[in-house]
Write a structure and sequence with these properties.
Helices cover about 55% and strands about 10% of the residues. By secondary structure, it is α/β, with parallel strands linked by helices. It has a five-stranded parallel β-sheet, with helices on both faces. The structure holds adenosine-5'-triphosphate, (3R,4S,5R)-3,4,5-trihydroxycyclohex-1-ENE-1-carboxylic acid and magnesium ion (MG). One of its GO terms (molecular function) is ATP binding.
Length: about 170
């Protein structure tokens, strides 16, 4: 039998995929994996450096490979990068998986992301760029999601408990 994630988390930057995903994995007693971290380990450098040195297209190529590998081999909670759903190949690969969309509105996303360093796509005019990214991607998150959890004003622990309850058969 092939291994598949118990849950895949998707959502905008700052939606809490990494934070809630770690808490959810701990609550379920399974491993947490994050394709952003997989890519950084494979490239042996942080994502902002990949964007600067090789460009976004190269990052997206690494990301498609990381998503396919993780979906095929990870049995725990899997967080995808915020832009992974842009690739049709990734959206198709998610069909048949349990995919939770962590939804967030702009005010909470801005508070959480902080509009500082570390997110290369938000380097210029961060608030307007984040707003645009979120509007462009909202239908794509909805397309792949089997459930949507509203995260605004809620703690990562509350959200992890809610998702754990959703996953119960
Ligand atoms: N529900 C929440 N309430 C308050 N703060 C949160 C919540 N979820 C995440 N945060 C905080 O927001 C910041 C961003 O969270 P996180 O890195 O988990 O987002 P992400 O969805 O993984 O983003 P990215 O797409 O950039 O990987 C972190 O500092 C985290 O502690
Ligand atoms: O929203 C995005 O496109 C990104 C989000 C992060 O998770 C990283 O995957 C990277 O910074 C790109
Ligand atoms: Mg993350």
């Amino acid at each position: 039998m092939s291994t598949r994630p118990v849950c895949v988390l998707v959502g905008a930057p700052g939606s809490g995929k990494t934070t809630v995903g770690s808490a959810l994995a701990a609550a379920l007693g399974v491993e947490f994996r994050d394709t952003d971290l997989d890519i950084e380990q494979l490239a042996a450098k942080p994502i902002p450096e990949i964007f600067v040195d090789e460009g976004e297209d190269h990052f997206r190529t690494l990301e498609r490979a990381a998503v396919a590998a993780a979906l095929a081999s990870h049995g725990g909670v899997l967080a995808l990068g915020g832009g992974a759903i842009l690739a049709e190949e990734n959206r198709a690969a998610l069909i048949g998986h349990t995919v939770v969309h962590l939804s967030v509105q702009l005010p909470d996303a801005v508070k959480r992301v902080g509009l500082g360093a570390g997110r290369p796509l938000l380097a210029i005019n961060p608030r307007a760029t984040l707003k645009h990214l979120m509007e462009q991607r909202r239908p794509l998150y909805a397309e792949v999601a089997t459930a949507t959890v509203v995260t605004d004003g809620r703690t990562p622990e509350e959200l992890a408990a809610e998702i754990a309850a959703l996953l119960k058969p």
